[in-house]
Specification:
Number of helices of chain A: 0
Radius of gyration of chain A: 13 Å
Strand content of chain A: over 45%
Shape of chain A: globular
Order of helices and strands of chain B: EEEEEEEEEEE
Distance between the termini of chain A: 40 Å
Distance between the termini of chain B: 32 Å
Largest interface: A-B, 24 and 26 residues
Shape of chain B: globular
Strand content of chain B: over 45%
Structural class of chain B: mainly beta
Number of helices of chain B: 0
Radius of gyration of chain B: 13 Å
Oligomer: heterodimer
Order of helices and strands of chain A: EEEEEEEEEEE
């Protein structure tokens, strides 16, 4: 299936860490993605993780993948006002050529 | 610019009218995707082109929706007899034929409002 589930809203104080969670259903996806959508802008790839990895660190971003539970998370360290956006996790289900997106998490950073 | 360009950025139309939305992908990108994003939802797949042909149109909701890409570059999404439920942001994305990661490059979208 292509169901990707995410919780909806998170507010965080500037400088704190924020964690966004996602569950997915297709265990055969090769890559899992986090996309960012800022107000009035197109989606932009933020980071991705290969399915044989458990963790990926990319500057302030840490992606954790739990394949057993089909759970993906994104941690943003030292959250800044520019991190205010909607974050979507996404996968390419086996046999498809397209990304399947979750509903998104809106992150609001409070100065 | 070098990114994916979509026009118009905003379109307001009346129920029953015909609408065309245009996407100009990144030069050289052979794959082109259309998605639809309703308020509070994630993007929903509509159709995927590889070159000029529609490789996967399984996401088109009904036969009022049609898309073309006659020369393998610019694509047009066409919606006939628009309904209020068609109101959404229509997103276009492109990618090279082969990518290491499957990354898609998105345009800013065309916001369609059907009154």
């Amino acid at each position: 299936g292509e169901d990707v589930e995410q919780s909806l809203f998170l507010s965080v104080r500037e400088g704190d860490s924020s964690v966004i969670n996602c569950t997915y259903t297709d265990s055969s996806s090769t890559y899992l993605y986090w996309y960012k959508q800022e107000p009035g802008a197109g989606l932009q790839l933020l980071t991705y993780i290969f399915s044989n990895m458990d963790m990926k660190q990319d500057q302030r971003l840490t992606v954790l993948l739990n394949k057993k539970d089909k759970h993906l998370s994104l941690r943003i360290a030292d959250t800044q006002t520019g991190d205010s956006a909607i974050y979507f996790c996404a996968e390419i289900p086996y046999g498809n050529n397209r990304l399947a997106f979750g509903k998104g998490n809106q992150v609001v950073v409070i100065p | 610019g070098a990114g994916v360009s979509q026009t118009p950025s905003n379109k307001v139309t009346e129920k029953g009218k015909y609408v065309e939305l245009r996407c100009d992908p990144i030069s050289g990108h052979t794959a082109l995707y259309w998605y639809r994003q309703s308020l509070g939802q994630g993007p929903e797949f509509l159709i995927y082109f590889q070159g000029t042909g529609a490789a996967d149109d399984s996401g088109l909701p009904n036969d009022r929706f049609f898309a073309v890409r006659p020369e393998g570059s610019v694509s047009t999404l066409k919606i006939q007899r628009t309904e209020r439920g068609d109101s959404a942001v229509y997103l276009c994305a492109s990618s090279p034929e082969r990518t290491n990661t499957g990354e898609l490059f998105f345009g800013e979208g065309s916001r369609l409002t059907v009154l």
